[in-house]
Design a protein that fits this description.
181 residues; alpha+beta; Aminopeptidase; four-stranded antiparallel β-sheet; three-stranded antiparallel β-sheet; 6 helices
């Protein structure tokens, strides 16, 4: 796999982000508006530091190809409570949302390489995080298979509020633990 890196999302990335969010393979699962106002409303608070979620542009050999955001469950207590019905969620655990936005890079291992690198950065940047826990809609096979290829294990399954209202509530919850050695 080529070099995967991350850089913080900037407002200058918003037009690119809007294009990616409009790509059919992203729009199906992310269900975000793509107007400048919608992208600003959804991602501007993180860029400005008002939302503690960390949002990154994923670079493949220096070229933007995707998006990754990570956040602590303790910063999202409602989400933590919803997941707690399916499995224990430690407050300092992290979660991630992600997509590969460039269609030509799909099905080439970029997603799983991106997640492996992101997990390594989680351990480095969040030393008290015991795990990364990622719920994914059960119908989103590409996403949960990518998590498996990145080393995540399915830890639970059950109903959660879907990101896209056209989806059912069935979710798989994946988890990866901080290495002990």
């Amino acid at each position: 796999m080529n070099d995967i890196a991350f850089r913080p999302l900037a407002r200058s990335d918003f037009p690119l982000l809007a294009r990616w969010l409009a790509e059919p393979h992203v729009a199906r699962w992310w269900n975000h508006g793509t107007s400048p106002q919608a992208v600003d409303a959804d991602f501007g608070p993180s860029v400005d530091g008002a939302d503690p979620a960390e949002v990154f542009i994923v670079l493949l050999d220096g070229r933007p190809v995707g998006l990754l955001q990570r956040y602590l469950f303790c910063d999202n207590p409602g989400y933590q409570d919803e997941l707690a019905a399916l499995l224990p969620v430690p407050a300092p655990a992290l979660s991630m949302d992600y997509f590969v936005g460039v269609p030509e890079t799909l099905r080439r291992g970029v997603g799983s390489a991106m997640l492996r690198r992101a997990v390594a950065h989680c351990w480095r940047d969040h030393v008290s995080a015991p795990s990364v826990i990622v719920p994914v809609n059960a119908a989103n096979r590409a996403s949960w298979r990518t998590l498996e290829r990145a080393g995540f294990a399915r830890a639970a399954e059950g109903p959660l509020t879907p990101d896209n209202p056209i989806d059912g509530p069935a979710h798989f919850v994946y988890r990866i633990e901080r290495p002990t050695s």
